[in-house]
Amino acid sequence: MIPSLKGRTPFQFAFVVPDLEDAARRFGVVGAGPWRGWLFGPQGLGREHRGKPADWTLRLALTSGSPQYELIEPVSGPSIHAEWLRDRGGGFHHVGYVVESLDHTTAEMEAAGYPAVARIHSFGADGDGEAAYFDTVEELGFYVEAVVPPAQMPPVEFTL
Question: What pLDDT shows up at residue 2?
Fold first, then answer.
């Protein structure tokens, strides 16, 4: 067990999808929605993919409440989301945990044999917020994401 994740409840279940609008409609069967959405891309985000700076764009939609559902539609560029869609098709991608220190959690995860395969920072309205995805796919069948949430998300760009 990774000490910084022990006893924590996942706050988010995320799915990579080929079509955000269609997925949001389909998730209505489990009562998910309404959805708040953003286009995350080249505008100033710090992004890393497999240890290198990355230039990707994706559409993202979130529900409110707990646990939160997240839908991710890759648009362009290399990312673990685009890889997932290409190699596995749409579906469950990662479970997210809120942590106090991304550096501390990254050190623990990597020491346990789960390297960070993607990182993002500065996604909040004030340039705060950071996250890392850890490669637990072989063992668990999905990624684990550690998130230090921003104080607030940017203004919603669209709703579904």
Answer: 85
Q: In what order do the strands lie in the sheet with 57-62?
A: 52-53, 46-49, 116-121, 130-134, 143-148, 91-98, 12-16, 68-76, 57-62, 36-40, 158-159
Rounded Cα distance between 26 and 66, Å, is 19
Distances (CA, A) of 125 to 28, 44, 75, 92, 155: 28, 12, 22, 27, 7
Asked if 88 and 113 count as a contact pair (C-beta separation under 8 A), the reply is: no
C-alpha 93/C-alpha 143 separation (Å) is: 6
Per the CB < 8 A criterion, the answer to whether 87 and 67 are in contact is no
List the structure tokens of 63: 């529900």
Q: Is the pLDDT of residue 42 over 80?
A: no
Inform me whether the pLDDT recorded for 43 exceeds 80. Answer: no
C-beta of residue 132 within 8 angstroms of C-beta of residue 148? no
Cis peptide bond prior to 53, omega within 30° of 0: no
Q: Categorize the per-residue pLDDT at 44 as very low, low, confident or very high, splitting at 50, 70 and 90.
A: low
Give residue-wise pLDDT tens across range 45-90: 688 899 998 889 999 999 998 999 999 999 999 999 999 999 999 9
Give the span between the Cα atoms of 51 and 119, in whole angstroms: 9
| CA terminus-to-terminus distance, the chain | 37
